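HUMAN: Now follow token order:
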Amino acid sequence: QVQVVESGGGLVQPGGSLRLSCVPSGFTFATYAMSWYRQAPGKERELVATISSTGGGTYYTDSVKGRFTISRDNAKNTVALQMNTLKFEDTAVYYCKAPGVSWGQGTQVTVSS
């Protein structure tokens, strides 16, 4: 079955950290660039970060630069998003995405005091 499964979300205070994980299956993971998106309540889904198939190239949206780090382990078929110095505005459902693969259910991140 071609899918991605996200995990690692939760409730965290401002300034805290979370590490999201994504486990893909059913496709040749190592040949795909992978991305993390997020969707906050009442807002459109937005691209947060992308990592190339080899891990040698990354992209971050301006609002997370210096705070979030995307990484991947092609041997273990996982992609992660390390989120530090979280802010209220990071609250959203976070999705892992591969081109041509359906959206997963996402994982909820809530930043609240």
User: Anything to note?
Assistant: The mean pLDDT is 96.
